[in-house]
Amino acid sequence: MCGIVGYVGGDNALDIVLNGLKNLEYRGYDSSGVAYFNKNNLVFKKSVGEIKNLQQKLEKTNLKKTVVLGHTRWATHGENNLKNAHPHCDKNKEVMLVHNGIIENYIKLKNELKNVNFLSQTDTEVVAQILGREISFFDDKKVVLNKFLKVLKKLKGSYAFAVLFKQFDDKIFFAKQKSPLIIGVGQNFNFVASDISAFLKHTKKVINLEDGDYGYISKKEIKIFNNGKEISRKTAIVADNFDEINIGKHSSFMEKEISEGGYAIKNTLLHLKNLDFSKLKKVIKGCDKIFVTACGTALHAGMIFKYILETKCKIDVILDCASEFRYKNFLVTKKSLCIFISQSGETADTLSCVLYAKKKKAFCVAITNVLSSRITKMVDFVVPTFAGIEVSVASTKAYLAQLCALYYLIYVFCDVLKLKKPFSVEDIFALSKILNNFCQDKNLLKIIPNFINNKSLFFVGRGQDYLLALEGALKLKEISYIHCEAFAGGELKHGSLSLIDEKSYVFSLITQKKLADKMLSNIVEMKSRGAKIILFSQFKNLKDNATYFIPLKKVKESLMPFIAIKPLQELALLCTKQKGLNPDKPRNLAKSVTVE
Ligand code: G6P
């Protein structure tokens, strides 16, 4: 994974690249580094941890540079340390390279390189060393491009590269295969980057590179080649807005993003109301099977979609997480409708499922928050969400926007198939007013010290509440590092109940009347073993069954997932804050996982 950005332009290149890297930190923040020319030599500076550490290192030098490339790392090959941080170079320091992706045949290539003392454990360094061996300082541009292509052809796996060659102090070379890479087009400057957030402040003009593309940028030139031939690619203007990346008055992006849940729903709905669904409607009428796949939080949104479509509309949905889906060889056919949910539109596991479904000639639909993402170019129909840029690794407002888009789809399904609609568009719209702001339930705050040091916490629910429990547990574990597990209420007695004792805290949900009695029995079972029950429900009469009761605003039952998830998101954030951790950047994770 990782994020890369390269800039050629004015003499504030270092600042520009550092700021670009900060906006790419969602792709990984294990370490970071930059490379640039110092007099006629290539040099790099690296640092472990967040970009601010690198920035501090560079502050002392106050360098004016016009060509800089930078990298923020999510460790794959080699532990997280300074040596493995990018950029990597060849033994003579004539090539400096940053990489996003995985070179699958790097061990074989490494073994072929004789007399090279490798400084890191990375696959990336192998490429830098090969380039250094193949390309001489005296090679001209044409020769370098040919040799570059020759080396690229040896590589198996995925890569987005940005490269500096010592003999070209006005150019950044690049190459793309299966990892995202785009060019930001400016006047007297150009960028190459993993995505637009790296340069949105400077330009909204973008060239989306395709697999096999390579070339170089200089201040005034963009040269793209594919398989030895120079080609031209269209320049597009992106609609994304830079202002949204501000943290404002909030103490974390996660806090800000939870408070924007209502806007995410409202904006998504306003756009979807004007979207022409006729192409999709035709497919819905004739499709044989519906498949849904996604990862992480997006998968949990997909689970709610499946639940409502199956229980309210009696339409079967086949769902699995993308990393499993791809290798199960599901019977996807040209009559299938495949729905892919991805906030970023870049998740490698999800994209590989799109490729699989495309091969089977299925009709592919993407629900994504990033209109310029790769998934939008791969599918037959895009249902955009408009949550705004989500910075925090833990997805919150994007989950609500995904639910909103999925509920809208359910509405479209009902419309086409002439089924009774379980809710109206106005009902969803009304949620947007309830869900703005950060509500911070006072009761929630009070009880956190009671369980913050527990080794494990449990989330339990039935029906849609089980699916919410899964998301609540994921949110809390990913940012607080407390082990959290979600159970379906009825499953407890089949094994998990043995974990419950008088120290256990169980977050229980009851949002569906028909399942309330059954869930209450499960609560009694847990209470009898001494567990403390924190119950989230709109049914106030259930209060006495709980140790602590968190009331929920009452809306139509099928819409309760929108309401119930909010205190669970807040719970995760508040626990993390109490533990003194940064909720926006949990260890070992990244916002966008672009490796399989
Ligand atoms: C990562 C993130 C999660 C996210 C998942 C899917 O694991 O940490 O927050 O839910 O990827 O991301 P996507 O962009 O495809 O929705």
Itemize the secondary structure elements and their pairings.
Blueprint: E1 3-8, H1 13-24, E2 31-38, E3 41-48, H2 51-59, E4 67-73, E5 88-89, E6 95-103, H3 106-112, H4 123-134, H5 141-154, E7 157-165, E8 172-177, E9 182-185, E10 190-193, E11 205-208, E12 213-217, E13 222-226, E14 229-231, E15 235-237, H6 253-259, H7 261-273, H8 278-286, E16 290-294, H9 296-313, E17 318-321, H10 322-325, E18 337-342, H11 348-359, E19 363-368, H12 374-378, E20 381-384, H13 397-416, H14 425-434, H15 442-451, E21 456-461, H16 464-480, E22 483-488, E23 505-510, H17 513-528, E24 532-537, E25 548-551, H18 560-578
Parallel strand pairs: 16-17, 16-18, 18-19, 19-20, 21-22, 21-23, 23-24, 24-25
Antiparallel strand pairs: 1-4, 1-10, 2-3, 2-4, 5-6, 6-7, 7-8, 8-12, 9-10, 9-11, 11-15, 12-13, 13-14
Bound molecules: 6-O-phosphono-alpha-D-glucopyranose.
6-O-phosphono-alpha-D-glucopyranose binds near residues 343, 344, 347, 393 and 593.
Describe the model.
- The protein is an alpha/beta fold and 596 residues long.
- The chain folds into 3 domains: 242 residues, Glutamine Phosphoribosylpyrophosphate, subunit 1, domain 1 (4-Layer Sandwich); 192 residues, Glucose-6-phosphate isomerase like protein, domain 1 (Rossmann fold, 3-Layer(aba) Sandwich); 157 residues, Glucose-6-phosphate isomerase like protein, domain 1 (Rossmann fold, 3-Layer(aba) Sandwich), CATH 3.40.50.10490.
- The protein is 36% helix and 23% strand.
- The protein has 18 helices and 25 strands.
- It has an 8-stranded antiparallel sheet with strand order 3-2-4-1-10-9-11-15, with helices on one face. A 7-stranded antiparallel sheet has the order 5-6-7-8-12-13-14. A 5-stranded parallel sheet has the order 17-16-18-19-20, sandwiched between helices.
- A hairpin with a 2-residue loop joins strand 13 and strand 14.
- Helix 7 runs antiparallel to helix 14 and helix 16 packs parallel to helix 18.
- It is globular, with a radius of gyration of 25 Å.
- It starts with a strand and ends in an 18-residue tail after the last helix.
- 6-O-phosphono-alpha-D-glucopyranose binds next to helix 9.
- The site of 6-O-phosphono-alpha-D-glucopyranose has 16 residues, from helix 9.
